[in-house]
Description:
The chain has two domains: 11-175, no CATH class; 184-246 and 255-454, Anthranilate synthase (4-Layer Sandwich). The protein has helices at 11-14, 30-36, 70-82, 151-175, 193-208, 231-241, 289-301, 303-320, 358-364, 375-385, 436-454; strands at 17-24, 42-46, 53-57, 61-65, 86-87, 98-103, 121-125, 128-133, 136-145, 184-188, 214-225, 246-253, 256-262, 265-270, 273-284, 324-329, 333-336, 340-351, 372-373, 396-401, 406-410, 414-418, 421-430. The model has no long low-confidence stretch (mean pLDDT 90). α3 runs antiparallel to α9. Helix content is 31%, strand content 33%. The chain is globular and about 70 Å long. The strands form two sheets. Strands 1, 2, 3, 5, 8, 9, 10, 11, 12, 13, 19, 22 and 23 form a 13-stranded mixed sheet that branches. By secondary structure, the chain is α+β, with helices and mostly antiparallel strands. It contains eleven helices and 23 strands.
Amino acid sequence: MNSPAPRDAPLNQRYGMLLACSIPANGLSLRGFLAAADGQARFYWESANAAVSIAGSGTAVELIAWGEGRYRQIETYARELFAGAHLASADNQLTRPRLFGGFAFRYDFTPDNTWSIYAPAIFALPHYQLASSGDQTWLTINAQIPPEEKPEALLPDIQSALAEKLAQLQASERERPHVKQSARQSIHYPMDYDAWARMIQSATERIRAGELNKVVLARAAELRFAGRIRPLPVLRYLAEHYADCYRFLFEPRPYHAFYGASPELLAAVQGKQLRTMALAGSIGRGENAEEDQTLGAALMGSAKDRYEHQIVVEKMRARLAPFTAALESSPRQLLKLSNIQHLHTGIHGALESDLGILPLVEALHPTPALGGDPREDALPLIRELEPIPRGWYGAPVGWIDARLDGEFAVAIRSAVAQENRAWIYAGSGIVAESQPKSEWEESALKFRPMLDAHAQLAE
């Protein structure tokens, strides 16, 4: 009889080797896969800009980390989990196991009523994973096997279980009824306009006094429904109206979900290739093409918004410089979404080495677009002025694969739901010239995607 591995042994020694097995699943949709997993842990990542669309159900492994070292701890856990793993099709990006998860906005985040099940860092390896790209879709099962077991001996049974699961999913997709959303009963804004104006005035006074250059301040709305909130109708609406955004679902416990459609990519890493963006400066969309063009030109010409945007570009480039052999920025342009347009600068480059995604996520978060500048001055001010903890709002959310490559968005345009209640958040970048009324109106624009999405009654 083998002795148990010591508590400080690597994950693959304590809990067993990771075994991943995959089969083609063409014709199976991510939405049908997620609908069949109602009442289980569920995970989802999709965008028109993402190379791979992914969904997961169940939990094979969960990784949790606390404190300032949370990024490095998750990286260590991931390396240990994937080390020596038996991956049947490691070279196929659609069969590569992926950890879904993210981080709280602050490392010292303490779970509260709204974020009761969330830690400063949580990642889950789904038991079943569906990945799609183009016309190819693959279903993968992830399992940990005891160290003394031989993968080759277990593969026939695992492949049989996987084929049976695929048949169940295909039957479920054919018979799937529409998922009904509960009726929304109320919307409550904990912060009224007067409190907002005082908060913005306090921030601008400190900026003008030279204490910092910029701070991002947020407010929240609480939604109550007649019954349990269903994320899938929300995600369908977001897919139809915000296809270019990074749409995500992180539901590590049934009916406790974090989801949204973020326009902001924090970082994507594949080998030595890095992509990110600076997104700061906002204005609404016009009622017609002429008005829309006028608004866009006003944003492009706004000294206040250009200044706010340039802070983000310069600080992001500076934080990435130690990791990159080359780094380039595209010309500033407009990113037009359904209800809002932003100033956008794409940033891409080559890394010095295959270091994976997490060191970049740690270096970038929070960018000045969600925190402020200087970061060490903005973060204490956010804590002082904002009455409600951010939890995971504005923080990195995404996935890590078996090579530690990955893709993370900034979790804005998002909601966290528990049973029949959801909380949504919206923020504004505050500089010396900021006015409370215009910043209040900008945050109202940023509420609209999630408010509208939650008003949908059926998938």
